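Sanity check. The docking grid for magnesium ion depends on where the pocket ends up, so I'm generating a full predicted complex first rather than guessing from homology. Inputs follow.
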Amino acid sequence: MAAQSINDLIDDLKDRFNLGSSELFGLDIGNSSVKLIKLEQSKGEYRVVSYAAAEFPEGTISEGNINEETVVVDAIKDIVKSSKVSCNNVCAGVAGNGAIAKKLQINDGAQDEIEDQVAWELESFLTFDTEKAVFSYDLLAKDESGGLEVMGAAVSRDTVDKYKHIVRSAGLSLKVLDLDSIALANIFFHIYEDALTDSDDSWLLLDIGSSITNFIIVRSGAIVFSKDINVGSMAMTEEIQRQMGLNFAEAEDLKVTYDSKGNLPEEILDIISGVAEVFFKELKSTLEFYNSSSSDDSLTNCYVTGGGAQTPGLVDGISEALGLKAEVLNPFNRIKIDEKKFGERVVNEIAYTCIVAMGLAMRRVDE
Ligand SMILES: Nc1ncnc2c1ncn2[C@@H]1O[C@H](COP(=O)(O)OP(=O)(O)OP(=O)(O)O)[C@@H](O)[C@H]1O
Ligand SMILES: [Mg+2]
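Predicted complex below; grid placement will be based on this.
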């Protein structure tokens, strides 16, 4: 307790005197691995300056629930050490667990009035008690008649406390807790800034992780629909494991080991495509739900990311199942990275698995 109070005091002093950088490390505690990334910003452009990640043993986190806190804390300590840059302040992201993000139209007013309206608007979407919720918002637009457009977010207090505790136990300071879905949207807006300016089109973004697929639809600089689907690439590993009588690590290895021509064995492909069919149905019904409530005919494009997006045939399958043009979201169309320093394999790993971590790292404390 005493140590924590001293840490608090140091943080307070740093904040008061504006010590340390306003730039934050993006910390993405995913279901399969933790990623820590630092971006350097100059004249509106970003460059990856450091990256480290560590995979979790099976069962450390499941469907967004952190089962083994000390394993997570130790993994964060390890990657801080291996990233070889001094890291204090982080922005972490949460997904699943009923975390929600929603665009809201509310009235302008004093800070507490705005907060009350955000809480009021989001209350009916919560999957946990309102008393246990923490609400937050980002201002998107303000109109002359006193209306505000905000991106409201809600997370359970238990989740906030857990993340604070984990980050602090790893010797870091949690400056911002964001939602993965918001980080995903923010980095997409940055990467495709030119194409999105003055566009009223909608875009579907999918982050296919290990256990969660973030399904979000964005339009005019905001999320208009968001759902964290509890299916990801791990379902494929588990099915390989089940059908072939292997342990998890062996099955995972088979799933990601391609031959010299970049192909997987026929037997593995069959298992993968069986799981993918179920996954496509889930995506399709989520899209149908959105379409039934929005009559949006401007949604024609889909960008896919996450480790699972590397699954052979998956992006084409999504395109066919949803009737949308689908392609992989490439962050390095805009964000710079030194390929010589990181190496081609790591650059590829960052491109697929670190979209959320980079979106988190774009946050600034003074926002
Ligand atoms: N080459 C590959 N082909 C298919 N799947 C892959 C490949 N490489 C990694 N994956 C899968 O990607 C997943 C990890 O992706 P990612 O890091 O985006 O997930 P996560 O952030 O840990 O999980 P979540 O987003 O659910 O919290 C793992 O399930 C892994 O098996
Ligand atoms: Mg993820």
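Relevant for the grid: Residues 30, 207, 209, 306, 356 surround magnesium ion (ligand 2) (CB under 6 Å).
Also worth noting: The radius of gyration is 21 Å.
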